[in-house]
Amino acid sequence: MYGNDFAPEEDAPGGGLLGQVEAAEVALREAAARTREAAPAPGEDPAAYFADVIDADQKIEPRDWMPDAYRRTLVRQIAQHAHSEIIGMQPEGNWISRAPSLKRKAILLAKVQDEAGHGLYLYAAAETLGVSRDELVELLLDGRQKYSSIFNYPTLTWADVGAIGWLVDGAAIVNQVPLCRCSYGPYARAMIRVCKEESFHQRQGFEILHTLSHGTPAQRAMAQDALDRWWYPSLAMFGPPDGDSTHSAQSMAWKIKRFSNDELRQRFVDMCVQQAEILGLTIPDPDLRWNDERQAYDFTQPDYDELMRVIKGEGPCNRQRMEHRRRAHADGAWVREAATAYAAKQRAESQREKVAA
Amino acid sequence: MSAPSEPPRVPVTSPLWEVFVRARRGLSHTHVGSLHAPDAELALHNARDLYTRRQEGVSIWVVPAGAIIASSPDEKDSFFDPAADKVYRHPTFYEVPDGVDHL
Amino acid sequence: MNGPFEFALALGDDALVAAQRLGEWATRAPEMEEDIALANIALDQLGAARLLLSYAGELEGAGRDEDALAFLRDDREFRNCLLVELPNGDFAMSMVKLLLLSAYQVPLYTALAGCADERLAAIGAKARKESAYHLDHSALWVKRLGDGTDESHRRAQAAVDQLWPYHHELFTADPAAPVDPATLRADFDAVVSPVLAEATLTRPATGWTPGGGRDGVHTEHLSFLLAEMQVLHRAHPGAQW
Ligand SMILES: [Fe+2]
Ligand SMILES: [Fe+2]
């Protein structure tokens, strides 16, 4: 079962998920230490070498030979992940100016800033595969590449900031912890860095909701309302059910993906139930109950038709999010041009000085 | 038949820089990632903000094709100290009520 | 301002309102790297604001903490300079504003670090390093914008023209304060003049010296800024967050 191949949680520093990230990092180092020729021997089939590296749970690095489809899959996945981090800044960024205490304002600013950092780590990882960030940004702005649909929902109250941290960052971590063991080195390393930071995000979200649910009746209601609105969209973050998921099998074989959508979704539900109890909030699913046989919770699936509609562009905020990103990019063009022009002038200047000297 | 529009802005691509960070005194610089910046000075600023938000470093190198530029040691204070008080960035800052797992 | 309370309050309000404006850039910066840089600077200003306002609350002795001071005062009770409350405008406006502000804050915090009040000295010692970085970053950008393209030069010059008059207020003499702002002017000039020169930017010839922020007489902008900042806190009186 998923999760048992890691260090026992009690011993894990910083809690379960953080412990798993650290275990992945250790595994990465160990795999790197195992002997392997740095490249296929002369005359050796590069495809066989690639398969050997994957089989041995070692990492493929940027200049290795790799199947075109492997490269394409990674570029798409990493880019869409990067776009999600960048677009994901908006729903929470929406509350920075109105955060209800100075401490919360500082935490939220730091969190939204982290997401920008995650986007940049991931664009950098994608660039090692031979695409430029500019191309990828272009694909996002043209609507040809997607970002996580969860960010097309609005943040209507302060409690939504808590719900995003707890549920959305929580779901992201469940998705991403296995990616720390992804077969592509730069992606795995970026994910290790990202996951360590995500842990702070999830905790601050949980803390916001915990404070609200133990606060005034109005605050409590705000927290429950946020959970009611964010629960099913969070479950949908794991993607369509396994039967309908197109790329899964090949990604699993390549060790890009390590668990199926449904496995991860189950894992997420199982860990949320107890946390919701501690929050004193009710997960909006009357059919949620422990299944002793499966050793897991039975739960109601999210509305996948709704997910498809939101992916197609019909969520409450798709247009707003894209419009915002396009405007920021367009408004910044003159600044980027100025910096480039200045750098060119400086280069020309130092050229002239060299010639004169 | 297209409507008259503004001439398209020439997209500007700023060069890629590789970033190396010395995590602590006594360790060598380690590659941590890359970023885009139009020039070396901005690359250093960006590297500091992107890769040392949690006090991950005491010294940064940014490397364009062929050249290495190191942050100068006397800038260290204003470069790295400010992250020292941002404890809320670290997950251990948050008290998790007893009995909560997986957070 | 004169006593330590008013002094800490004024400096805290400068930093708080500056942080609020810088925070507005989040998700809107001209480049993703700059989004991170601006957030860092906003966080520094916010951190200084919290220390200063907490201390002001203690000096006042009326039981007001940082949040009471930030969220429960009206604009007429704020003591920040007008410069920080002006709307962000474009990136040139924000960088010129930050240059003027940090060129004032660096010598101010440096002087504070050596003052007799231990708490203020500690805050000054910490904030000085942060402001040095803000100064570095804004100077870097002002040079690039001023000496970049025709468009960026035009925008940067417009920003200097519009903001320059507001810097006078920062140096209004106050001999009774822990640090007399009038003594900081030479340091400010020594830093700002070469940056503007290198950026090929000129100071406007105007005798207009708007002020009043230190007495609670602000521009029309501050009330809107506070309305947004305070709305949630005020909607739930007494609540914990
Ligand atoms: Fe993230
Ligand atoms: Fe996050």
Automatic annotation (TrEMBL), chain A:
A single GO molecular function term of this UniProt record: phenylacetyl-CoA 1,2-epoxidase activity
Gene3D superfamilies given in the database record: 1.20.1260.10
Gene Ontology annotations for the cellular component aspect, listed alphabetically: cytosol
Record-given protein name: Ring-1,2-phenylacetyl-CoA epoxidase subunit PaaA
Organism: Micromonospora matsumotoense
PANTHER family in alphabetical order: 1,2-PHENYLACETYL-COA EPOXIDASE, SUBUNIT A, PHENYLACETIC ACID DEGRADATION PROTEIN PAA
InterPro entries, A to Z: Aromatic_CoA_ox/epox (IPR052703), Ferritin-like (IPR012347), Ferritin-like_SF (IPR009078), PaaA (IPR011881), PaaA_PaaC (IPR007814)
Matches recorded under Pfam families: PaaA_PaaC
GO annotation terms (biological process): phenylacetate catabolic process
From TrEMBL, chain B:
Pfam family, one: PaaB
Database matches in InterPro entries: PaaB, PaaB_sf
Alphabetized NCBIfam families for the sequence: PA_CoA_Oxy2
Protein name: Ring-1,2-phenylacetyl-CoA epoxidase subunit PaaB
Species this chain originates from: Micromonospora matsumotoense
From TrEMBL, chain C:
GO cellular component: cytosol
Coiled-coil positions: none
SUPFAM superfamilies: Ferritin-like
BP term (GO), one: phenylacetate catabolic process
PANTHER family: 1,2-PHENYLACETYL-COA EPOXIDASE, SUBUNIT C (PTHR30458:SF0), PHENYLACETIC ACID DEGRADATION PROTEIN PAA (PTHR30458)
NCBIfam families: PA_CoA_Oxy3
Protein's name in the database: Ring-1,2-phenylacetyl-CoA epoxidase subunit PaaC
